[in-house]
Specification:
It is built from 21 helices and 21 strands. The longest helix has 26 residues. The strands form four sheets. It has an eight-stranded mixed β-sheet, covered by helices on one side. Strands 11-12-13-14-15-16 form a six-stranded mixed β-sheet, with helices on one face. By secondary structure, the chain is of the alpha+beta class. It starts with 14 loop residues before the first helix and ends in a 14-residue tail after the last helix.
Length: 608
């Protein structure tokens, strides 16, 4: 086991373990959840190995985080507020009202959400769900909503921050396939769970793999200070756009003296840009909203809880915790800008960046999910983009072409393999990986190169405090040794897509158009939606699908489809066309469907 610096790793402080167990009411036994076909979509029992001592194949700090996060069950946050933790990547919070229970963040999958609600009801009674709140637009905070709505009044309010749908679509539909593939690496979903494999991701253990749905919000929260009473429970909202998610909000329960921090303050340094990919988050704004939460609520709070990890109790501790989180993101932002303005590029700034001792000494500031290194690069990217200003790096060859030239200059594959082995033996695993990566891109069938690189990735993984880094390294090693596994889970489920607006559906089609194949097509289709009393004109020209609202019956369309919004999705994938009223030639739609590309959900990452 690695010896830890007591100044950076305060092992004497066991408060987190007491807090993670506080309020425990009961666990799900066994903690294995299956779908309707018996397929396992969640298995928290697979992490039982974390009860043992930390092995040499894991960073002790990450092992400690895994021990904390793997705890599962129903917990009382305070009288009237409960959390189910350890049944998915995120927590589901339940607030008891006059007539039933308000559900906050119904997990990723309907199966895990239903199991979480059943666990709550087993201990607190069979209360009806009277409202749903999404704290923000990441799938682990809304995807399981159907699992808590069964039997609920169909008219119950669904509350979310303004911009929720736009943000959810951008991540889960527009860029969903690429993000989903990279998420396999980030969460280590293809890895065996064990001391040498996947031990969590810092924010939670992993992602569930059940049925994802989406019920669009019925009420958007637009301003800080906005108040609503749901099932007799008064809630004061704080809008925090541009923090951990483009659409996010914290909120305060005055009668409970309880503060929900969504995912803006969790028990780790979070990501300013995730390794799966996302819009770069604004560390300056993030810090400012944390400060606003302190000013508005923290001094009155008896408890602060979030959509991941465990709560903080006591107003002094809440203020202290949020203050350090605020300073963490402010320091990352300000000091990166200082280094940028001294002329350092992102990699150079990340290499010299150090957190102050006070932040280093706080467990919840450690980079289990985000990291100082890639967050500094994210700040640089937000302000200056991908180019570091050096002309030599303005128009570089892509990886495969660059690797061929490097390996040739260094004397060929055998010579580079030998040099990489020397660097690995000397402990410079980072440069060994760089050399071996170039060899693999030159000779992807060379078993020696792939195994050497996989071995280096193993060592880098086992020494990483960051769970997502560990999973990236180990998944890369796994694919080098065994090839591509199962494709990443399909994104944009039919139910999720059914929740999109007509504009968003047309945008989703537009990003799938194979531009070169469509260069010469000139087609205009009117989508006359009878239930919405709207007509959306979609035009394919110059390889681009554009759309706008037009008055119904406007001249110039090759085809007019007369249908409901519910039929629109089916028509876009070529289903139910014979049941749709139309004017004009259906061949126009067939032509557009023919140039829609099906993306590769299992594209290679560590090989060319």
């Amino acid at each position: 086991m690695t010896l830890l610096d007591p100044d950076r790793f305060p092992l004497h402080d066991t408060t987190d373990f007491a807090d993670a167990d506080r309020g425990f009411l009961g666990a799900l036994e066994p903690c294995v959840i299956t779908d309707a076909n018996g397929r396992v979509v969640w298995d928290n029992d697979a992490y039982a190995f974390l009860d043992g001592p930390c092995p040499d194949t894991a960073h002790p700090s990450l092992w400690r985080q895994g021990q904390l996060v793997a705890r599962q069950g129903l917990y009382e946050v305070c009288p009237g507020i409960y959390q189910v933790r350890g049944l998915d990547l995120s927590n589901m919070t339940l607030v008891e009202g006059d007539e039933g229970v308000i559900v906050i963040d119904p997990l990723i999958s309907s199966e895990t959400a239903a199991a979480a609600l059943a666990l709550y009801r087993a201990h607190r009674g069979d209360r009806a769900v009277t409202a749903v709140i999404y704290t923000h637009a990441h799938v682990d905070h809304f995807g399981g909503v159907r699992g808590v709505l069964e039997g609920a009044d169909p008219g119950i309010p669904v509350i979310a921050p303004q911009g929720f749908m736009e943000s959810a679509v951008a991540e889960n539909v527009y860029a969903g396939v690429a993000m989903s593939r990279r998420a396999v690496y980030m969460y280590g979903s293809s890895l065996e769970k064990g001391p040498a494999g996947q031990i969590g991701c810092g924010l939670g253990m992993t992602t569930s793999s059940g049925t994802v749905g989406l019920v669009p919000p019925t009420l958007d929260i637009t301003t800080t200070g906005e108040e609503h009473v749901l099932d007799g429970v008064r809630i004061v909202f704080q809008i925090t756009p541009g923090t951990e998610c483009p659409a996010e909000m914290n909120f305060w329960f005055p009668e409970h003296r309880a503060l929900c921090m969504a995912e803006n303050a969790t028990r780790n340094l979070h990501n300013l840009v995730t390794l799966r990919g996302a819009v770069v988050r604004d560390a300056r704004v993030w810090s400012a909203y944390l400060d606003e939460a302190i000013q508005l609520f923290a001094n009155e709070a008896d408890v602060a809880f979030a959509s991941h990890h465990w709560p903080t109790w006591g107003s002094d501790k809440v203020v202290g915790y949020l203050t350090l989180q605020r300073d963490l993101y402010a320091y990352l932002h300000d000091q990166t800008l200082r280094l940028m303005n001294k002329g350092l590029n992102g990699s150079e700034a990340a290499e010299v960046f150090e957190l102050p001792p006070t932040l280093e000494a706080a467990w919840h500031c450690h980079g289990y999910y985000g990291s100082v290194s890639h967050n500094v690069k994210a700040v640089y990217q937000r302000y200056l983009g991908w180019f570091d200003g050096n002309p030599a790096r303005l128009w570089q060859h892509p990886p495969e072409a660059s690797a061929e030239r490097y390996v040739e200059c260094m004397g060929g594959v055998d010579a580079v393999l030998a040099r990489a082995a020397d660097y690995a033996a000397s402990g410079d695993l980072r440069f060994a990986a760089e050399l071996l990566d170039r060899v693999v891109f030159v000779a992807p069938d060379d078993i020696r190169a792939k195994e050497a690189l996989a071995g280096v990735y193993d060592q880098l993984a086992w020494g990483s405090e960051n769970g997502t880094w560990r999973n990236f390294f180990l998944t890369g090693a796994n694919e080098l040794r065994h090839g591509l596994g199962e494709p990443a889970p399909a994104v944009g489920s039919l139910e999720l897509l059914a929740g999109l607006t007509p504009e968003q559906l047309l945008d989703a089609v537009a990003v799938r158009i194979d531009g070169p194949r469509a260069w010469d097509e000139r087609i205009t289709i009117d989508w006359a939606l009878t239930d919405l009393e709207q007509t959306h004109r979609a035009t394919l020209a110059n390889g681009v699908l554009t759309h706008r609202l037009v008055p119904d019956g406007s001249p110039g369309a090759d085809l007019r489809l007369i249908l409901t919004k519910g039929q629109m999705l089916g028509a876009m994938i070529g289903l139910g066309l014979d049941q749709i009223n139309h004017e004009g030639d259906l061949e126009a739609l067939t032509t557009i469907l023919a140039v829609i590309e099906s993306p590769d959900r299992n594209f290679p990452i560590v090989t060319p």
